From TrEMBL:
Enzyme Commission numbers on file: 2.1.1.386
Species whose genome carries this gene: Blastococcus aurantiacus
This protein's name: Small RNA 2'-O-methyltransferase
Domain called Methyltransferase type: residue spans: 294-386
Cofactor: Mg(2+)
Length: 479
């Protein structure tokens, strides 16, 4: 099995520092399936290529096998493609050899860890159940340009058709850690046949490798099922933990991992909470008559995508402090292929919501959807001044989790928050107290509402405040 990864970043030999592998010293590492060789076919300032070659030991594979053969027939352990085609075995080797690079650490070049580099990845033979189209489905939403050529069963007899193997070439500008994690998950997903024992530990591996991209991938349900070898219970656990990140009910995230049988097929599935939030925000914007809108803390651009469908909005500005999030948003929105008239309505800006920014002034409305809880409480006054005093739009819409409702999420531990980056989550009374104080200090009136099913005991899962600036009011900022 062979994989090569190249860059034209200058100097290209910085790749060795990021991978923790010296281009001048070939290395060999033993893994459960055989031996991995790491070497550099080329290493210059203009271009650097690292090659990972896995020599599979067929005898070791048979000795280490548990249960029935993944190759589907009695001699599958002895007659198979494992020594030749990239599969989940290569993903295991990749994870071990490039462990530090996957975590995004580099003692020699820490400044490069977060930099997106021009990369090219080649896999001359990849087991891909679903063919070239499946490779496109997995990698294209992650920002890769995908070239996948099916390998014929026999070039002498083209009428036999294509095999399940492809020759794959990926090009794109990515952080190296992201690229390796895409491969770490993608190889077993495309192969759709894990060749080692799948335990609950694989859930943690999937979520760590998928951090920052799996939750927003359009095929996250398929990826989760395939990576976890179609183990329904594991897939449900993984989807529940992804749901915590997105504030979704796990059972509405993916029907494919829900228990089968007994359900009325005519019954409509519940609407995911994130969709309900978008609908509530759009309804408030329509009611306000806004035509120029700020999405503050826009993240991966999910709400921006919804706002673009509103023809009444002539200008939409997404703002986020993370350049990485804005790159993801640009890919999600297909900015490079967006029609010119649509593109003219949209801007994506990098900026902090705790610092005054003249670019944010003069807009009709601003939305902070699931944003405030990501700030440390002592930074909320700065956000308040930036949004309500300096930018001072006519309407401000704020949504945030209702911590009281968390008891209705079985996947959450007692006292747990819905996202690992949340600094706090408010009760209904705490949120109302904050919103009322903000409105009074800056010349707004505020209305508190809920989004999602209103639990009679614990209230709705999401709470929303709609601030409307009083006519002729002057915002006051506490010294």
């Amino acid at each position: 099995m062979l994989l090569t990864l190249s860059t034209t970043h200058r100097p290209a030999t910085d790749l060795g520092f990021l991978l923790h592998k010296n281009p001048d010293r070939p290395q060999a590492v033993d893994v459960s399936s055989g031996r991995v060789h790491v070497f550099y076919p080329e290493a210059s300032d203009e271009r650097c290529t690292v090659a990972l070659l896995l020599e599979v030991d067929p005898i070791a594979l048979v000795r280490g096998a548990r249960g029935t053969s993944a190759d589907g027939f009695s001699l599958g352990q002895h007659v198979n493609d494992r020594p030749y085609a990239a599969s989940s075995l290569l993903a295991v080797a990749l994870g071990k050899v490039f462990a530090s690079a996957r975590r995004g650490t580099s003692k020699e070049r820490p400044d490069l860890v977060g930099v997106a580099l021009p990369l090219e990845i080649r896999l001359p033979a990849l087991s891909c159940r679903g063919g070239a189209g499946m490779a496109e489905r997995f990698f294209a939403p992650l920002g890769w340009t995908v070239e996948a050529r099916p390998v014929p069963l026999d070039e002498t007899f083209p009428e036999w058709g294509d095999s399940r193997y492809i020759e794959l070439r990926l090009t794109g500008t990515q952080r190296l850690a992201d690229a390796i994690n895409h491969l770490y998950v993608g190889l077993p997903v495309l192969d759709d046949a894990k060749h080692y024992w799948v335990s609950s530990d694989e859930i943690d591996k999937l979520l760590r490798a998928g951090e920052g991209w799996l939750g927003t991938h359009p095929d996250r349900d398929m990826i989760t099922r395939r990576y976890l070898a179609h183990r329904v219970s594991f897939a449900r656990q993984a989807m529940a933990r992804l749901a915590e990140v997105d504030d979704l009910d796990p059972d509405t995230l993916d029907d494919a991992v829900a228990p089968t049988g007994g359900a009325d097929e005519r019954e409509q599935p519940p609407v995911p909470l994130v969709v309900q939030r978008h609908g509530a925000v759009v309804a408030e914007l329509r009611a306000s008559g806004a035509t120029r809108v700020l999405d503050l803390g826009c993240g991966n651009g999910a709400l921006v995508q919804t706002l673009l469908e509103e023809s009444a909005l002539i200008e939409i500005v997404g703002v986020d402090v993370s350049a990485r999030a804005l790159e993801v948003a640009a890919r999600r929105l297909h900015l490079d292929r967006m029609p010119e008239r649509q593109r003219a309505r949209l801007s994506l800006l990098q900026g902090s919501l705790t610092c005054a920014d003249g670019r944010l002034r003069g807009y009709d409305a601003a939305v902070l959807m699931e944003v405030v809880e990501h700030l440390d409480p002592d930074r909320l006054p700065a956000l308040e001044r930036t949004v309500f005093a300096d930018a001072a739009p006519g309407t401000v819409i704020v949504t945030t989790p209702n911590v009281e409702h968390n008891v209705r999420y079985p996947a959450l531990l007692p006292g747990g928050l819905r996202h690992r980056d949340h600094r706090f989550e408010w009760t209904r009374s705490e949120f109302a107290q904050w919103a009322t104080g903000v409105a009074g200090r800056h010349g707004y009136v505020v209305r508190i509402d809920g989004i999602g099913t209103d639990d009679p005991e614990f209230g709705p899962p999401t709470q929303m405040a709609v601030f409307t600036r009083r006519v002729g009011s002057v915002s006051e900022v506490a010294a």
